[in-house]
Each structure stands twice: as C-alpha cells, then as structure tokens.
Design a protein that fits this description.
By secondary structure, the protein is an alpha/beta fold. It has 13 helices and seven strands. The protein has a single domain (about 1-295), classed as Rossmann fold, CATH 3.40.50.300. The chain has a five-stranded parallel β-sheet with strand order 2-3-1-4-5, sandwiched between helices. Strands 6-7 form a two-stranded antiparallel ribbon.
Length: about 300
C-alpha cells in the first residue's frame, strides 16, 4: 500500500527545503503544497517547479490523463470549493466528507501510479487539511510536524518576495506584520498539536534549525520510519557538506527555492537575528512565548 507523509506547521518554516530533500530518497516523491493544486494548477495553470506551466508539464499531464481514464473528473474549481467548505469544519468531519475524500484519493492514486513512488510528501502544512485526510482511502498516512523559531518566521513574512509561478504577471508573496505572524504561528501549532491527538497516526516532530544544521541526522529517522527501499548506495548520499544535490521536481506550490536544482545550499537562515528590528523581535517573543519555550527556543541555546 502507498503512503502519504503530511508536513504540518506554519508557513515560512522551511517546508520547501525539507520536501526537496525528501524528494531525493528512493521511492519518495514530493508534490509540494498539494492542497492548492486544484486552484493554482488545474485552474490557474501556474508554473510547476520543473519550470513548465502546469498544463504543459509532462508529469502532471500524465496525472490528468490517469484521472480522465479512471472516470469523469469533477471540474477543478468545484473540487477546490468543496475542499474549502470541508476544511471550514476544522478537525471534525462535515457533510460532504465522503466526496471530499473520494476526490483526494483519486488524485493521490493517480500521482502514485504515474510516479511509481511508495511515499508521497505533501507540504501543504495546514493541520486541518492533513487531519481531514488521515483516513485517505487506499493510503497509509504519517505526519511530520515541522517547527521553526517564530521570530524567524515573522521576519520572513515581513519580506517581499516575488512569486515566479505567476508567469503571466508580476506577483509577490503575501506579507504580514510581526504581531500578526506571531498569532498565526501560535494558532497553527496549537492546531497541529490538536491534530496529533485526533488523527491517531504515526507522528514525528522536527525543528527547521536541526534540519539545516545537520540534515543527515535529521533525515535518518525518517528514512527508517518510511522504510525507504534498500539499495547498494546510501539513500542520503545526495547530502554533502552544506549542500544537497537535488534533481528537477514537480511540486505545485511553495517557496520559490523549489525551482532550483543541482547543488542546493543547506544552511540555517539566521538573517533575522541581526536584521529584524528590536521592537518586532520583542513583539513576537512576547506573543509566542509559550510556544517558543515549549519547542526549546527560549531558555536554550537558540534564544
């Protein structure tokens, strides 16, 4: 049976780096923030991380063909609307759940069949979305709770970044104030902890800082947990000293770094420590104090 590893956590937490690394493991394929595929891929035709518009990407073209072969496909906009309605219910099932699960099961099955991967990695990060798909028909599900210092997340959200996937116009990633980012960080991790208690599925926790500092040590437990197929070579051989050798992927949404391939620099982004205004840093520390302490960022070496 195939499996899906859901990455949950706050945005700007390094999930794109993580899914790029996981994508290099034998039998594993990362598809990026799949929650957005119906709107950003099927409807808006944004760029796949391979550099091609979604409708021109050979991989996603094969997935669409497989969906067509399996039977009539509901209009993508309607599936997106159904998914949004389902997710408004939070962690509890809502009317329309069977149809919601059926659409997502068909999509995951098509991706698994085309890719031949045993495990698919979804880096959508939304704890509600991931929890609602805990019982995805025909798939095992696992969870990886990714955490990054709330102050680093807030600083990242304050910066204006181009969205290259919007290939027909100039567009930028949404920005937020430090105070609002801290509130969002708090809510997301509270939801993630609630989802952990709800889904009753294997659950791992990983800090971005630990991944960036020693990716081999951070990924080794996942290699074991996912039972990555044994080969004659080290499954983590793509990791070098401060770099990772990554191929072209087919993720549908995420940080702009998903468009790069070849040698990928793996290092902690600590710009916030010297560039983040003191007032903003204080605001986030104050509002996210409980979570920062829980996850080891205050009162420890990361403070």
């Amino acid at each position: 049976m195939n499996g899906v590893l859901f990455i949950v956590g706050a945005s700007r937490s390094g999930s794109t780096l993580l899914e790029r690394l996981l994508n290099e493991l034998p039998g594993v394929m990362s598809v990026g923030e799949l929650q957005r595929v119906w709107r950003r891929g099927f409807v808006e035709n944004q760029l796949c991380s391979c550099g091609q518009p979604f409708h021109d990407c050979p991989f996603w073209g094969d997935v669409r063909q497989r969906l067509d072969t399996d039977g009539p496909v509901t209009e993508a906009g309607a599936v997106d609307a159904l998914s949004r309605k389902q997710l408004k219910a939070g962690l509890q099932p809502a009317p329309g759940r069977e149809a919601f699960l059926a659409h997502w099961s068909r999509l995951f099955r098509a991706i698994a069949d085309v890719s031949g991967a045993r495990w698919l990695v979804d880096s959508s990060k939304d704890p509600v979305f991931a929890a609602q798909l805990a019982h995805l028909p025909g798939f095992r599900t696992r969870y990886l709770h990714l955490i990054r210092d709330a102050r680093a997340v807030a600083y990242s959200k304050m910066r204006r970044r181009l969205r290259p996937e919007i290939h027909w116009a100039e567009a930028y990633m949404a920005t937020r104030s430090a105070w609002a980012s801290a509130g969002s960080w708090n809510r997301t991790h509270r939801l993630a902890e609630a989802a952990r208690r709800t889904v009753d599925r294997p659950w791992h926790r990983l800090r971005y800082e630990d991944l960036a500092a020693d990716p081999r040590a951070a990924l080794a437990p996942l290699v074991s947990a996912l039972r990555v197929p044994a080969t004659d070579t080290d499954p983590l051989a793509f990791l070098g000293e401060g770099v990772a050798r990554v191929g072209v992927g087919h993720s549908v949404s995420g940080n702009p770094m998903r468009f790069g391939h070849g040698e990928l620099r793996v290092a902690q982004d600590v710009e916030w420590r010297h560039a983040m205004p003191w007032r903003n840093r204080f605001e986030v520390s104050l509002r996210s104090y409980v979570g920062l302490r829980r996850y080891g960022y205050i009162g420890h070496r990361h403070d």
